[in-house]
């Protein structure tokens, strides 16, 4: 018997590691581990992401039950859980898909060593991205740190083999035949069910086809909102790249950004805690707690910023154009360390992905790869004129906007801009 270990690949179809397990072995047992090392750090006990994962696991369990198999779900510290699994199931091999985040890599190294000490083979496959780690590099082997040439090389190397679907279904008879095992509940793990409406996995072709023209306007349905499904692997990246190739290069580019930031984290792991451009760590952030709280609550007095933050707090989602505006506002209008914003997004975003979130925040603050220059400061007034001129988006999330009930602007735009330029220049000139 062999094990398929689900992590960020919560689907039975077109799943690389699961395909290799099923095609090479009979009696494949699927498992999932709710990792206490991760869950214990979550501040909100109704964290929507835990509910999302749990619901997807139940969907997988139901499909497996239909064919007489089962999904075993565990809760605890992975090294301890695996000690028990080895004794309980006595697998000859473990199949899983790679996770590229620093904690996950450390965890997998420990588990691989534990399995090896018990003569169990650990097999890890690429599934979350199209190109991983150092598969796309400059001709001299150095990693790309600018997106445009990276994307050109990415597209030039892309072959049909990279996006071919893994046909798992024809091996579904290789799942282990067993009765359903008891399932741990959210409550037993200390969590509550979140009633949030999660984005649908079904995407209208028209949205992708018109993505280039409509993606910047948060007041309309112009984006696919599939990011949470990419984050947890409920859809296949290969399938969506095929769709992007045929319908919209702009949408395809957004998928390439995921690979780009993933390889940045691989080559430059210091970005997890510090600026990619280390000289930006010399900036003297103001870090006003009052200003940060106002930003978090969507009470800055700037309509587009407040609408974005309220949308995030209510739905776990924020439109990509608005993400850039609110990130620029926090780091440059309020002079608050980008890491504060990154951490808040990590807590609230349904689609939180370490590499992409880190890359986006460093881009906004000017400290990252391919970043906007520090003197590029989003004007929150002109952003409204360009992208929400009818105020559809703002009034949806900030109904009191434009009335006497709306809060006063916490900083003056012109003064904040001048202070930002002065602060950044002083820091960078002295490095």
Question: Could you characterize what this model shows?
Answer:
The chain is of the alpha/beta class and 431 residues long. It has three domains: 1-127, 3-Layer(aba) Sandwich (Rossmann fold), CATH 3.40.50.620; 129-166 and 202-267, Serine Threonine Protein Phosphatase 5, Tetratricopeptide repeat (Alpha Horseshoe); 272-429, DNA Cyclobutane Dipyrimidine Photolyase, subunit A, domain 3 (Orthogonal Bundle), CATH 1.10.579.10. 49% of the residues lie in helices and 7% in strands. Strand 4 (93-97), helix 5 (102-117) and strand 5 form a beta-alpha-beta unit. Helix 11 packs across helix 12 (249-267), helix 15 (320-333) crosses helix 17 (354-365) and helix 16 packs antiparallel against helix 17 (354-365). It is globular and about 65 Å long.
CATH superfamily of the largest domain: DNA Cyclobutane Dipyrimidine Photolyase, subunit A, domain 3
Mean pLDDT: 95
End-to-end span in angstroms? 58 Å
> Largest sheet, order of strands side by side?
3-2-1-4-5
CATH fold type of the largest domain: DNA Cyclobutane Dipyrimidine Photolyase, subunit A, domain 3
Q: What's the SSE pattern?
A: EHEHHEHEHEHHHHHHHHHHHHHHH
Main sheet attributes: strand count, strand direction, barrel closure: 5 strands, parallel
Count of the domains: 3
Using only C-alpha atoms, the radius of gyration works out to: 23 Å
Using the 3D structure, state the CATH architecture of the largest domain: Orthogonal Bundle
